[in-house]
Design goal:
Blueprint: E1 6-7, E2 13-14, E3 21-25, E4 32-38, E5 48-56, H1 60-71, E6 78-80, E7 89-97, E8 111-113, E9 116-126, E10 135-148, H2 151-164, E11 166-167, H3 180-189, H4 196-221, E12 234-236, E13 242-243, H5 250-257, E14 261-267, H6 277-286, H7 290-301, E15 307-310, E16 312-313, E17 316-324, E18 327-334, H8 340-344, E19 348-352
Parallel strand pairs: 3-19, 4-7
Antiparallel strand pairs: 1-2, 3-10, 4-10, 5-7, 5-9, 6-7, 8-9, 10-18, 11-16, 12-13, 12-14, 14-15, 17-18
Length: about 350
């Protein structure tokens, strides 16, 4: 079992004990590589063109706008499965609707200037628009530089992460620069008008904050891995299917041990909590402060419904190597909607970006 919580760099409690390293990640975009793993193959026909692109120094929204301009369509006709960071090298898919029109020239979409690059790796017709979440997962290759720490302890921590997983926190990118999205969400709930895209982003930030608070309480109490004896709602691994509340018995404990199921926390919205007993009490206590109550009320008024999210995240195919004495390269696969920073936070104190002068 994990050693116990410490406070991570973003203020959430980490689960695996004291920090084992200090270092710097994402010093250059090439140090943060992400490859979308497709959930399906293009069927070769239809009015949508499915593009696989490699990009550097550009976020997903920027690329979507460029694709819309290239194809001469509205941005609403461009689809993508997931959001990818600007300060990274990523491979992801987009769709663009082109009813009754020939495919535009891919070369006219490509770009390589001022630290930004965009290349079309594959293009094929498909019958449907690419929807959010329509991916099997993401493969990460991350480089940590200026590593300070004992290699044996670092590798022992990585083995512990592989064996037990990490808390499934929403990453800091959900909350905007300096966490500003939470204040903006509260202002929106207080009556400030915002656009549709911004509204969706702020609702997600509010939900994510409440979930992280519940998960933090579970980490501090040590129940994020195996679940509580009573009142727990469980999620099947690799899906959003849940069952319970159901008391933890020998059969469920074995399934938890095999990563077949995970304990869950609430994604807030209308309706009663599905959890019961001790699990329900813990969840409500964790989000009972005045700011959390305002977030809860705002989410309910916005019409979102109660959902659940797994408390535990297990990186698949985790591996590491040391290209240099103070350089650690990690690779792993995560399911959609989860964050590589949740894995990094369990190693120690990491700074993001290039070192200053």
């Amino acid at each position: 079992m994990p050693d116990g919580p410490r406070v991570s760099g973003d203020g959430t409690p980490a689960a695996h004990g004291p920090a084992v390293l200090q270092g710097r990640y994402r010093a250059v975009p090439e140090d943060f590589r992400v490859e979308e793993l497709p959930a399906f193959e293009a069927d070769g026909q239809g009015e949508h063109l499915l593009l696989t692109v490699a990009k550097r120094g550009m976020n997903t929204a920027h690329v979507a706008r460029r694709i819309a301009q290239w194809a001469g369509v509205d941005e609403r006709d461009v689809g993508y499965a997931g959001l990818k960071d600007r300060h990274a090298v990523t491979t992801q898919r987009f769709s663009v609707q082109l009813p009754g029109r020939p495919d535009p020239d891919p070369a006219a979409l490509e770009l390589d200037q001022d630290g930004e690059s965009l290349r079309v790796l594959h293009a094929r017709r498909h019958s449907r628009k690419l929807s959010r979440g329509a991916l099997a997962g993401n493969r990460f290759v991350l480089v940590v530089r200026e590593v300070r720490g004992e290699r044996a302890r670092i590798e022992a921590r990585l083995r512990a992460i592989a064996g037990h997983g990490v808390p499934n926190y929403f990453g800091v990118q959900r909350f905007g620069r300096g966490g500003d999205n939470l204040g903006r969400a509260l202002a929106m709930f207080g009556g400030r008008r915002v656009g549709r895209e911004q509204r969706s982003m702020l609702l997600s930030a509010a939900r994510s904050q409440l979930f992280n608070q519940v998960l933090a309480a579970r980490v501090r109490g040590g129940s994020w891995v195996a679940g509580l004896p009573e009142g727990e709602v469980w999620m099947l691994d690799g899906s959003r299917s849940v069952f319970g509340p159901q008391a933890l018995d020998a059969e469920l404990a074995d399934r938890v041990q095999r990563f077949d199921i995970h304990p869950t926390g609430p994604l807030w919205g209308r309706g009663g909590l599905r959890s019961d007993g001790a699990a329900r009490s813990l969840e409500l206590d964790a989000i009972a402060d005045p700011a959390s109550l305002r977030l809860r009320e705002g989410l309910e008024a916005a019409g979102l419904k109660q959902e659940r999210r797994a408390l535990r995240l297990r990186p698949a195919d985790i591996a590491w190597q040391w290209p240099a004495g103070d350089v650690l390269e990690l690779s792993f696969v995560l399911p959609p909607g989860t964050y590589a920073t949740a894995v990094l936070a369990e190693l120690g104190a990491l700074e993001e970006g290039a070192a200053g002068p």
